[in-house]
Amino acid sequence: MKIAILGSGGREHALTFSISKSNKVEKIYCIPGNAGTSELAENIALDINNFKTIYEFLKKNNVDFVVVGPEDPLVNGIVDYLEKLNIKVFGPNKIASQLEGSKIFTKNLCKKYNIPTAEFGVFENAKDSYKYIDNAKHPLVIKADNLAAGKGVYICREKAESYLAVKEIFDGKFGIANNILFEEFLEGEEMSYFIISDGKTFKFFGSAQDHKRVGEGDTGKNTGGMGAYSPSRLFNEELEKKILEKIIKPTLKGINDLGTKYKGFLYAGLMIIKNEPFLIEYNVRMGDPECQTILPTLDTDVVKILQSCINENLIEIDINWINKKSLCVVLCSNNYPDKYEKNIIVNNLEKLNLDENNYLFHAGTKKQDKKIYAVGGRVLNFISISNSYSAAKRNIYKNLKRLNWEKGFYRKDIGHKVIDK
Ligand code: AMP
Ligand code: GLY
Fold first, then answer.
1. Model pTM?
2. Which residues have any ligand 2 atom within 6 Å of their CB?
3. What is the residue with the minimal CA distance to atom 5 of ligand 2?
4. Probe residue for ligand 2, chosen from 265, 290, 292 as the CB with the greatest number of ligand atoms within 8 Å
5. Number of neighbouring beta carbons within 10 Å of residue 31
6. Residue 162 is part of a domain; what is its CATH number?
7. Are residues 213 and 294 in the same domain?
8. Which CATH number covers residue 39?
9. Which of 274, 277, 348, 411 is most solvent-facing, going by the fewest CB within 10 Å?
10. Position 285 pLDDT exceeds 90
11. Quick one: which atom of ligand 2 is closest to the CA of 289?
C-alpha cells in the first residue's frame, strides 16, 4: 500500500513511525514532513492547505489513502474535497470538524444534547460584552470563536483583563470576530481522552495529561505542549463510563443528527471535577504531544485500524495496548514560545539510546547535507515507555543529557503529578 500523511510535527513523525511498522505498507509520503519522517518516508514539499496540488500528487502517485494530521486542512474541508475526487482519506469532514473549528458550534451542541460543560454566553459586539463583564463573576474565561492555534483563550482574573480580552478579540487578533464566547471558570484537573471513529462505531484511543505551559510547575505562557504522560492519573472505569455516556455518545449523535458522520480521531479536552467530566474543548485530530506519547503503546497494526475506519468496519477490529506507562518530553529552541532562532544545527543524535522502549520523534527539524537543523520552536520529542513513570522519565533525561543541545531547553518536571508524590 501507498500511504500519505499530511503535516510536519511530532504527531506526524509518530504516525509515520507506526505506519512504517506495518507489513501492509510499501511506500509512505509525508507532506511536507520533517527530518525524522525523511528516514522512513519520502518527504514532499507541498502546501497542505492547497488542496488542488495535494490531490494532483495523490492521484499521480496512486496513493491508497491519506491521513490528515493537523486541524487546519480538516476545518477547511480537505476531506470533503478529496473524497469528492475519489481519494480515500482518514479524518473528519468539514461539518464534523466544526467541533474544533468553532467553539460556539460545540457549546451549542453541548446545550442541545445536555453535555456537561462550563456555563456560557455568546455576544456579538464589544458593547454588550463590556456590559456583561461589569456584573460577571471572575475569574472569567473569554474565547475567540475560531481556530487560534490554542491562543484565543483568556482566563481573566479581574475586570480589566476581561475588557482587554474583548478588545483584542474584536480588534481581530485571531481573525475576523463576529462573536465572542464567555465561559464560567471551571476549577479541576485536565485530562485528554481520545477515540477513533469510523462513523458507525468508535473505540478508545488512549488517555493522557499534557503540560501546556512553558515553565516548571505548569507556569508561564501557553505553548503547543511541553510534554505529556499516558495514561492519565485521573483515568478510571467509572469516569470513563461517564465520559462515554454524557459526552462522547451524545456528541456523535449530534453530528449524525446533522446528516453526517464523525470519522477520524476525536480528542476530548476535559476538566475533571470530583470524578465528573466536563467538556472544555474538542480537537478533531490526535493531540501533539499526546500522539507521540500514546502511539508507542499501541499493540495493533495501525494501518489495519486506519483502513477499517475508512472502510467503516472498525467494529471488526480489536485495538490492543501494551500495559505500560509512557512519558514524553519536548525539547524546544531557547526562548520558545517567543521568537527563537532558526536553522541551528543539532549534533549528537547518534549518541541517543533508542530501542523498542525509547523513541525520538522529530518536530521542527530539517535535514540538509546529512545534517539536522532545528527550524521550529518545538524541535524533538523524547519518549520512553516503562513499568513506571519515574523509570520512563529517567530514560528520557539520560537521552537528553546525551544530546546535550545547548541551544534548547526542556521542562524537568514532566509528569510531576504522577511522579513527585
Ligand atoms: P481551549 O483552547 O478551549 O482548550 O482552552 C485552553 C486552555 O484554557 C484549556 O486547556 C484550559 O486549561 C483553559 N480553559 C479553557 N476553558 C476553561 C474553563 N471554562 N475553565 C477553566 N479553564 C479553562
Ligand atoms: N496537546 C494539545 C493539542 O494537541 O492541542
1. 0.95
2. 150, 210, 225, 283, 287-288, 290
3. 287
4. 290
5. 26
6. 3.30.1490.20
7. yes
8. 3.40.50.20
9. 274
10. yes
11. 1
Which amino acid is residue 292, in one-letter code? Answer: Q
155 CA distance to ligand 1 centroid (A)?
A: 8
- Substitution candidate for ligand 2 out of 72, 214, 222, 267 with most atoms within 8 A of CB: 267
Task: Give the pLDDT of residue 421.
Answer: 52
DSSP-assigned letters across all residues of 289-329:
THHHHHGGGB-S-HHHHHHHHHTT-GGG----B-S-EEEEE
Distance from the alpha carbon of residue 154 to the mean position of ligand 1, in angstroms: 8
Bridge-based pairing of strands 344-345 and 263-273 is: unpaired
pLDDT at 262 > cutoff 90: yes
Mean pLDDT estimate for the chain: 95
Same domain for 244 and 274? yes
| Residue 381: burial class (beta carbons within 10 Å; 0-12, 13-18, 19+) | buried
**Which ligand sits closest to the CA of 102?**
1
Q: What SS3 state is found at 58? A: helix
* Residue 146 confidence (pLDDT) above 80: no
| 287 and 336 share one domain | no
Domain boundary among 135, 158, 184: 184
Q: Which of 414, 412, 409 is nearest to 344 (CA)?
A: 409
Residues with CB under 6 A from ligand 1: 118, 141, 150, 153, 155, 183, 185-186, 190, 269, 280-281
Q: Is the pLDDT of residue 149 over 70?
A: no
Q: Which domain holds residue 151?
A: 119-184
**Mean pLDDT in residue range 210-223:** 92
pLDDT (tens digit per residue) in 325-366: 999 999 999 999 999 999 999 999 999 999 999 999 999 999
Number of domains in the chain: 4
